[in-house]
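Thread: Fructose-1,6-bisphosphatase class 1, structure

OP (GT): Posting the sequence first so everyone is looking at the same thing. Length is 333 residues per the record. Can we get the structure tokens written out before standup tomorrow? I want them in the notebook alongside the other entries.
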Amino acid sequence: MSKLITIERHILEQQKNFPEATGELTDLLSDVAFAAKLVRREVVRAGLVDILGFAGSTNVQGEEVKKLDLFANDKIINAIGQHGRFAIMGSEENEEIITPPNNENGSYALLFDPLDGSSNIDVNVSVGTIFSIYKIKNSDPRKADISDCLQKGSEQVAAGYVIYGSSVVMVYTTGHGVHGFTYDPTIGEFLLSHENIVTPKHGKYYSINEGSYAQFNDTTKKYLDYIKEEDSATGRPYSTRYIGSLVADFHRNLLTGGVFVYPPTTKHPNGKLRLMYEGNPLAYICEQAGGRATDGRRRILDIDPSELHQRTPLYIGSEDDVRVAEEFEQGIR
């Protein structure tokens, strides 16, 4: 790395390309980066404090909540909400929308998954934070409501994620390319490490939970059979890579190429992943990096949401690979 560029400096440099920018979005992204540092501090020392294991409660999805889930959720709400720059917030861990204090000057809505893949934290597998930012529709921030959160993914003004692994990486886009920053704990800063990420058009990995094979429909089973066949012309068979932390699987495929598939199942006929907290932000990033994201039939970013915790199937990654998966889902192949 020939020069050290912090995430704050990079955001400011990007802002110069838009004379009409007020700097408000720059401050919001800096707030998210700060919250990520707080979560990272606890993730890396989780085994040393009483923060592993279950909290003894369930979230709005009916899933058991980890102690670290609650910690990450509280830290993000407190670290970001206290500045009053967001008029309204929504978390995967909260059933209802969150109205931050002193929000009368906020012009944006923040939706986030505080700790994606938290079921893996006890066994030291990578987890992450995913976030999405929208401009609110209400002219008066004090009147911001759930409608300001229930916008199509195409309306996002920024999205990103932080992956807490062997290193801590924050990736974000404001609709003008995708950039990644690696955390340097010696100086306490995120430094530019992946500039203008472009995902390969065709990859060699597929990510799917094959333990749910019996619950897949026939089109998904047929797709899996296809992707395992030998054919040098199409680079098959693909290698399987499935971590079980969406943000980790997505990050790998974004950099190396591949496809992540979470299809409908008999248990979850409408899909399991959350449109607002996972599907939309990752789809926005993926498309900005040259990839593709659909629910098997529709572009994820075109879906008109009706619920804060709406679920969706997800086919995301390299453009060519997603198209093939879609063709099987639609019965074209």
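GT: Both are above now. Quick notes for whoever picks this up: Confidence is low (pLDDT under 50) at residues 51-57. The chain has two domains: 7-194, 205-329.
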